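S1.2 Input.
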Amino acid sequence: MGISALYLPDDSVWPGYAFNVAIALVNPQVQQAPGMAVMYSVMVYNLAADLLINWAQDVPDVYVPGTDPPIGYFANLRKEFGCFNFTAGVVSASNDEGSGVSLEVVEGLKNLTVTQLQNLKTPYGRTYLGYAQSTGSLWGLT
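S1.3 Output.
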């Protein structure tokens, strides 16, 4: 992910937590399928990155330069990605008349869990879900 040690020190517990949970959540049968070992690694990496963004606590008194008010690295990412914003669907249309937006839950997203909907917030989570869905309905995604 290219995160500076200033924001994520070598002794931080968060990468380990995120990695271990990703290992627990990504279906190990993906790794066993012929030719899918690389796909499994990509899925674990992307899910762990998504979890890290959502969970990691910032280093006290270390802020992203230029933020006003000063904000930590992970808090800034969560704000940028809208991790705490509730969205009940995917934008299907928008307009400038009063900032109107229409939401639609497309067929591929109807069976997602709340956790999987949270994964949609970051590019890493979307990448993970895309690969998980492409492996078929066996993994709980259709």
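S1.4 Remarks. The two ends are 28 Å apart (CA to CA).
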